[in-house]
Every structure is written in C-alpha cells, then in structure tokens.
Amino acid sequence: MIDLTKQPFYLNETQVQWVKDTLGSLTAEQKAGQLFCIMGGDYTPEERKILVQEGRVGGILFRPAPAEDIRAWYRPLDEAAMVPLLKAANLEEGGYGAISDGTLFGWPMLAAAADDEKMVENFAKVCAVEGRSVGINWTFSPVCDLDLNYLNPITNVRTYGSDKERVKKFTEIFAKTVQDCGVAACAKHYPGDGVDYRDQHLHPTYNSLSAKEWYESYGEIYQNMIAKDLLSIMAGHIVQPYVAQDVNPGLSLAECLPASLSKELLTGVLREKFGFNGLITTDATIMGGYCMAMERKKAIPMSIMAGCDMLVFSTDFQEDYKCLLDGLREGLLTEERLDEAVTRALALKAKVCRIGEAAVRPEEIEAEKWHRECAEKAITLVKQLQPQALPATKEKYDCIRLVVLGKDEIPGGSITETALNILEKNGFQVEVYKPLEDELHGTGKLSKRRLVLYLANYEHASNQTAVRVHWSPKHALDSPRFLNEENCVFVSFANPYHLQDVPRVKTYINAYTATQATVEIVLEKLMGKSEFTGISPVDPFCGLIDTRL
C-alpha cells in the first residue's frame, strides 16, 4: 500500500480519504481513463467534455494559445469533470510554453550561462505563475538531461548544460520553486537524453553510458530531486541497456526496452533503488521511439505494468483506451498495478488541486525585467581572436552588413527589424544582405571598414535530425568566406554549437534564446556598452581541432 502521507505527496487526512473514496467510486473503465493525458486540440469541445464527464481522461494539455483561449477551453471541462483534471504544459522556457502571449524568459541554458541560482529561481517563478494563471497545475519540466553530444538536435539549449553539478543544482531549484508555486514538476527525460546524437521522437535512442557512469551522473541528478520531494518523472523512449542489465543480468541487448516500457528502469531503479514514490508518466506515446519498440496493443498496458502511472497522448485515444482494458482482461496488466497507478494519479491531483486546503497565494513576478537581467549576465563571448574587431563603433566601421540566418521571426517582431532599428538608432549605416541578389566576386573591394554581422537562429525542434547552418544555394554567398579581408562577428541565438559550421570565424558569441531583448543586449555588448559575463555551460568548440583556430 502506498503511504500518501509521506514523500513526495505529504497528503493530509482529508486528502488521503479523498483519494481512497475516489478510487473506490471508479469503475475499471474509469480507472483506465484516469491514466491518460490527452492533447486537447485533437478533440472537439464536446468530445473533450464527454471524456472528462465520464471520468475517462485524467489530464489534458493544450498547445500554447492566447491565455483567454486556454481559460475558455478549460472552464467547461472543470465544470463537467467527474474527477479534477491534471492540466499540463511544457513550461520549459517561461509562460510562453503554455500561453502564446506569455513570457519567453529563455531556454534553460540561458539561466545556466548566467550561472546564478537566483536567475533559475526567477525563471521557475515565471514558468509557474504564468502557467498557473490559466489553470496549469502540472509542468513537463525541468529538463534534466546532460548535453553531452553536440550533434543531438533536441537537447542543446533546452538543458542546463553538460556539467553534472550545475544541472543537479539548477534542476533542484527549478523543481522546488515551481512546486512551491503550486505546479507539480515532472522531471524529464529519464533515463537521460543528450548522449545519443539522434532524436527519440523518431525512433528509440540510447543512453550508452556504463552503469557506473550513469549512476554517477544522470542517476545522481534524479536521486537529488527525489530526495527534495520531486512529484513526478517523465520516462523517455530512451534505452539504457547497461543500467537495465545491472538490474537484470539475464537481459540481452535486444531485450532492453526504452524506459517508458522498462520494468528494470522504472520499478527496479526509480521505485526500488531510488525509493521514488511519486508519479511516473511516459513521454508522448505518439513518438517513434515508443511506437517502434513494441506492438502497440501490448505496449500500452505494459507501460503501466512496468511502472508508469500515466500515458501521455495517443495516436488514437479510443484504440489506446481499448488496449489498456484488453490488457487488463488478458493479464498483461494486473488490477493491483492499475490501482497503484490510479492512486498516484489521484494523489497528484489532491496535491495540486489543493483538496481540503487553501489555494496557493500567487507570487509577484517581474518577468520582462528578470529576463533582461538573466540575458545580461548570460550572453557569452566564446571566441575572440581579433580583439580589434570589437567594440563596433562608428569611428571604426563605415557600414555593417547584417546577415540573418535561420528563423527571423521572434516574439513581437523579427531579428532583422529589431537589429536594423537598434543599429540605425546608434548611427550605423546598415546593409541587410540578400545573397540571391548578389554575384560571385573577389576580394578587391572588401574593406576592414565594414563589419559583417551574422545573427543565426536555428532552433531545436522535434522530428529533425540535425541543427546546422544552411547556407544560400547560390554559391553559399552568405558564408563567411572572406573573414581574413573584413571583420566578421557571428552570433548564435538558439544553438551553442554553431562553431562546427563556422570554425574559422574569429569572433563568436552565444546568446541561447532569441527575443527582442537578447538581440538588443547582444548589440549593446558588441558596441561596448556592457561587458560579456556569460559562462558557457557546454563545450562550444565541440571538441573539434579547428574551432579554436
């Protein structure tokens, strides 16, 4: 029997009784439904209402939309819900992770580069308070991965870096802060992304550290958060064969499953070795990493049997729901294990819905001010082999050629417009470079009196295999080929590893997040109005020989 009065739930007598009474009132069909967290946008308002009315859904996540829309979507569901809902969001970068008109505070690596615990606390408050303002009570964060492979397309700035101690400290602060603000943290992506260079959205990936290396790195990070009352963990579609074999030496490599299906990693490590008593959920079961691992009609019940308590998203909800019930009837899932999972789901609801308790008092936040302070400390001058190139002054440069790469759009505007306005207000003549309108040419007319300023914004994203700079199809005319003839500065706003694509650039800066504020602060630093103070949380040189030249 799960003791809900102890870590991490610490439920009071009223809440424990509510969990028992609610569990006892549910049919097997309703219990099965409580284990699903669906994407609200995949269903009509009437379909959503019926599902929650019948108790056949435990949680709902809406993709970011205006705050008023999300409130309007949740309102009828709250009124109709047979059991209170877990209302989830990916609050990884600020309130922007839940609401499109929320604050893009910055990706975790921005806070990590500031190397300041207070910045992480402020970051977490913005995530929780803005999320809570539209009803969010469960965040799929913090990201607890170690960014150990610079080729990984999905981790990079989503992480606090590659240093175990920094990641351990900052994930603890984030989880504690959001939970103090009334939002349950869900640490991800157990057993840890960032070792493989591939994306688990597309197929199962591997954390290939030895068991000893894993326990001393990712394992320590999770144990630390568990000891500090972490409420939930998300199991990724990531295989950790050597830890699984450490738990069960009889397993062959082919028998090692992604964590979302692995009894060894979930029950053997999280429950038995680490003593975790909180809720475990899968990552999205629509992902290739889950779908490819096992026949779906077996995978759905077996995730719960292995140790997960909830299933996130469905390829077809009615089909997955039937798979779970069929698994229960056919013995793939026991009633005892079903009741354990539902008990934890209800306990999390009792905690975040404050059953029998007063509501959490909202924290006061200064989101935009804190974002600017964090960016001011975090932006990092990674490489400067031409000290004379900076600061950029009108006395030094007649013209600035502005080359914007990747996504130009940022919240509230564009990189090009923001940079152009700032530079022109500071008296610079600016040329926005359009390579398709240029022709191949030599170096005779180039001058050190022109600064070529690259602003790159290639964001991480699910379902892509690489995050690299893509040059113009016309002779790559926008690449920094003549960096010996004219001064060149390269700024990356969304990926700390672009030196792999511009290894010979002599002045390189990482800004970690693309907002109007970070663009403005980068340009202020380039013009010498403030100092660069950021500390790189990863190896921006990618371990390559030529990136330091």
Q: How would you classify the helix and strand content by structural class?
A: alpha/beta
Q: Largest sheet, described in full?
A: 8 strands, parallel, barrel
**General form:** elongated
Terminal-residue CA separation: 61 Å
Contiguous uncertain segments of 5+ residues: none
The count of β-strands is 18
Radius of gyration: 25 Å
Topology:
Layout: H1 13-25, H2 28-33, E1 36-39, H3 45-53, E2 59-61, H4 67-80, E3 86-89, H5 108-114, H6 117-132, E4 138-139, H7 164-180, E5 184-190, E6 205-206, H8 211-215, H9 218-227, E7 232-235, E8 238-239, H10 241-247, H11 263-273, E9 279-284, H12 288-291, H13 296-306, E10 310-312, H14 317-330, H15 335-352, H16 367-378, E11 380-384, E12 399-406, E13 409-410, E14 413-414, H17 415-425, E15 429-432, E16 450-457, E17 487-492, E18 507-510, H18 516-526
Parallel strand pairs: 1-2, 1-10, 2-3, 3-4, 4-5, 5-7, 6-8, 7-9, 9-10, 12-15, 12-16, 16-17, 17-18
Antiparallel strand pairs: 11-18, 13-14
Write a brief caption for the model.
The chain has helices at residues 13-25, 28-33, 45-53, 67-80, 108-114, 117-132, 164-180, 211-215, 218-227, 241-247, 263-273, 288-291, 296-306, 317-330, 335-352, 367-378, 415-425, 516-526, and strands at 36-39, 59-61, 86-89, 138-139, 184-190, 205-206, 232-235, 238-239, 279-284, 310-312, 380-384, 399-406, 409-410, 413-414, 429-432, 450-457, 487-492, 507-510.
